[in-house]
Structure formats: structure tokens, C-alpha cells
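Design a sequence for this backbone.
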């Protein structure tokens, strides 16, 4: 079982560069082509939010046009740069309420959580969403589970996103610990690939497709900036032995595979 996770697309309308510098449409196209070239092709892809940079219809339509080339099914959840009503008009998501859903993926149950607090950068799980999650965990109690959402529910040492906060994180932690079968919490938002233990499970964050936040570990770091980066995504692999392994996949200009061993003609 292979699950691709693509996050923080930040697409701008066709023909525009995001923040005047980054062609995220080109990066997303490269990632889609890369996923389609894998053997085997992933069983599905999860897009963990910030599909658009400004929540506009043109950017969402562009994302759909590019993602429609995937040879596997895909599901989207919103990030803080998105608008639910725009995503509803463009993608196959719940037609009313929050954009939560449960997806069956072989032996796994995938819980897709809408953590968007429209108009605010941070994440939130309100009482309505927490009530939905209680039922989702009941329905998936017998299966290993992965939870996908845009906002990581804990600070990860990135000042710009740590200060955004996550309301409802303590309640989520209690549910994760009580469920006892959550194999992974998969988020985005911070534009960097990280992992940390939390609530008895592993939280992983996917890199942005082309805009990594700068890392700064000073006690009083300056305002965060981004750097243009190679297209990247996560690939979650449920092995035949039942281990869930998460890979960071970074696209390279040259992906020629060379055999180990002596070079032809090398007397040594």
C-alpha cells in the first residue's frame, strides 16, 4: 500500500508566480508526473491543504486541472489559505459542513480532518468537528488508522507557524491516546519535512511543493522567510510486514540509477 501526500501547493492564478518568485504550478506538474512514473503507482494521494495561495477560484481550478492527471484517486482537505466554498465548487468534497471524511485504503482507515479556521492562520477542531471525530474513531477502532490534516497539532520549532496555534489540540491528543491504533498523524502547514512523537504516535509534516520556510534556531529568530526549493512530497508505504514507513521524495534533474560494484574497465 502506497499513499502519496502532497502539501502546501500555494497555487496562484494561471500565469502568475506565487509571491512573485515561485512557479508552483510547474512544481506540482513535476510531482504529478513523478508519482505517475512510480512502480507501482500509489493507491491514492492526499492533498493536505493550502491548495491555493489566496483562496481564489482560478487557482483552485488550476490545481484541479493539474491533479486530474494523477493515475490514482486523490482527496483534498483545506488549509488556512483555502476557502471551503471554493473547494466545494471545484473538488469532490462534502457538500455541506466541514470537509471531514473517512477513506478506506486497504487495511488502513484514513481520517481526513478539516482544521481550517477561516480568516485565521492557526488550526482549530471545534466541538462539532470533535464530535464527528469521536464517531470516526468508533467506526475505525478495529483498523490501523492514519489521520490527515493541514495543521500539525503541536509546536515544531518553526516560529512563524508555532505562533499560529491549534485550538482543540488537547482534546485531539486525548482521542488519539484512547484510540490506541493511530499509526501516523500527517500534516503540512510548516513547509518542512519534520517528525515528532506526540500523544503516543508519530506526527509527520510534508514539505511544501516548492517553498520551504527558512530554518532558524536562534532564541529570538527574525521573521521567517521562504526559499525556492526542489519539488518534494511524502510517500507513506505500508510494507508487507505491516510497518508504516514514510519517505521524503525530492525531485531531481537527474534520476539515473547506477549499479553498485566495480566500474566497467576498472582493473581494481
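Sequence:
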Amino acid at each position: 500500500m502506497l499513499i502519496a501526500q502532497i502539501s502546501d501547493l500555494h497555487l496562484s492564478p494561471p500565469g502568475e508566480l506565487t509571491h512573485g518568485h515561485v512557479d508552483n504550478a510547474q512544481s506540482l506538474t513535476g510531482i504529478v508526473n513523478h508519482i505517475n512514473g512510480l512502480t507501482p503507482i500509489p493507491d491514492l494521494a492526499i492533498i493536505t491543504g493550502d491548495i491555493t495561495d489566496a483562496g481564489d477560484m482560478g487557482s483552485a481550478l488550476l490545481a484541479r486541472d493539474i491533479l486530474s492527471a494523477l493515475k490514482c484517486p486523490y482527496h483534498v482537505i483545506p488549509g488556512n489559505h483555502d476557502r471551503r466554498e471554493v473547494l466545494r465548487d471545484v473538488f469532490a468534497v462534502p457538500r455541506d459542513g466541514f470537509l471531514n471524511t473517512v477513506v478506506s485504503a486497504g487495511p488502513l482507515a484514513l481520517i481526513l480532518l478539516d482544521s481550517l479556521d477561516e480568516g485565521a492562520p492557526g488550526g482549530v477542531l471545534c466541538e462539532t468537528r470533535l464530535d464527528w471525530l469521536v464517531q470516526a474513531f468508533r467506526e475505525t477502532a478495529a483498523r490501523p488508522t492514519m489521520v490527515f490534516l493541514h495543521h500539525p497539532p503541536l509546536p515544531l520549532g518553526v516560529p512563524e507557524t508555532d505562533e499560529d496555534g491549534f485550538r482543540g489540540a488537547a482534546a485531539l491528543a486525548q482521542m488519539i491516546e484512547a484510540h490506541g491504533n493511530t499509526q501516523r498523524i500527517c500534516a503540512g502547514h510548516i513547509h518542512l519535512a519534520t517528525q515528532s512523537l506526540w500523544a503516543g504516535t508519530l506526527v509527520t509534516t510534508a514539505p511544501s511543493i516548492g517553498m520551504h520556510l527558512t530554518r532558524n534556531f536562534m532564541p529570538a529568530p527574525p521573521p521567517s522567510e521562504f526559499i525556492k526549493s526542489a519539488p518534494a512530497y511524502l510517500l507513506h508505504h505500508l510494507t508487507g510486514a505491516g510497518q508504516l514507513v514514510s519517505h521524503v521524495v525530492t525531485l531531481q534533474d537527474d534520476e539515473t540509477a547506477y549499479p553498485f560494484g566495480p566500474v566497467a574497465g576498472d582493473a581494481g
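The longest strand covers residues 232-238.
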